[in-house]
């Protein structure tokens, strides 16, 4: 089971967003059969099987083992990931595009950049999985508490200068075997954690 998987297909996204199926995905962090799940989610086994087949068709659950119980074969299923992210590619015609409104101080532009980040990393993960390779990435996450809006603006200016200088230092347009990497730095108000 992957810690997180990216859903790129529109049909798989639709299947995963059904409330019953989302609940089944959560329940399938540990392998379970339709019979076991039916008592947990309060649905008949046949209905659970129907939803499990839809999830399995789209690669969101997988068969772990089959057990014979008398005349019945019990299928033990498990979610393919602990959590899922729906890529903007699932909504290809309306996926966000940062180029439409390149205002780096706009929350909507930041959301479009984040959408592109999810899309790109999702595609990289899918490609790397097929090639049985890892994706070379790096992320930095932290919080800073600003005393004032002026301090936040000064921080953003210094951060811009520092990142621009660092990119200029290491960017080599002439590197024959060089590979381009996207750099995304975002600053936004923290959202309180739900407890």
Describe this structure in words.
The protein is an alpha+beta fold and 195 residues long. Helix content is 44%, strand content 12%. It is built from 6 helices and 4 strands, in the order βααααβββαα. The strands form 2 sheets. Strands 1-4 form a two-stranded parallel sheet. The protein has a two-stranded antiparallel sheet with strand order 2-3. α2 packs across α4 (45-57) and α3 crosses α4 (45-57). The radius of gyration is 22 Å and the shape is elongated. 16% of the residues are buried. The mean pLDDT is 91.
Quick description:
This protein has 195 residues and is an alpha+beta fold. The chain is built from six helices and four strands. The protein is elongated, with a radius of gyration of 22 Å.
Task: Please provide the count of β strands.
Answer: 4
The structure class reads alpha+beta
Please report the distance between the alpha carbons of the first and last residues: 26 Å
Specify the helix fraction band.
40-55%
What is the tally of helical segments?
Answer: 6
């Amino acid at each position: 089971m992957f810690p997180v998987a990216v859903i790129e297909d529109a049909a798989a996204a639709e299947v995963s967003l059904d409330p019953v199926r989302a609940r089944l995905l959560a329940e399938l962090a540990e392998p379970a059969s339709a019979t076991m799940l039916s008592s947990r989610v309060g649905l008949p086994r046949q209905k659970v099987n129907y939803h499990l087949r839809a999830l399995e068709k789209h690669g969101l659950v997988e068969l772990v083992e089959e057990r014979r119980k008398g005349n019945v074969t019990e299928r033990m299923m498990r979610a393919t990931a602990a959590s899922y992210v729906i890529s903007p590619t699932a909504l290809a015609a309306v996926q966000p595009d940062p180029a439409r409104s390149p205002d780096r101080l706009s929350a909507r532009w930041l959301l479009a950049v984040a959408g592109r980040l999810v899309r790109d990393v999702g595609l990289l993960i899918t490609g790397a999985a097929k090639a049985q390779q890892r994706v070379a990435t790096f992320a930095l996450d932290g919080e800073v508490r600003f005393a004032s809006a002026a301090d936040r603006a000064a921080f953003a200016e210094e951060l811009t200068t520092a990142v621009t200088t660092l990119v200029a230092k290491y960017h080599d347009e002439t590197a024959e075997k060089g590979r381009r990497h996207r750099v995304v730095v975002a600053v936004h108000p923290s959202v309180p954690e739900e407890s």
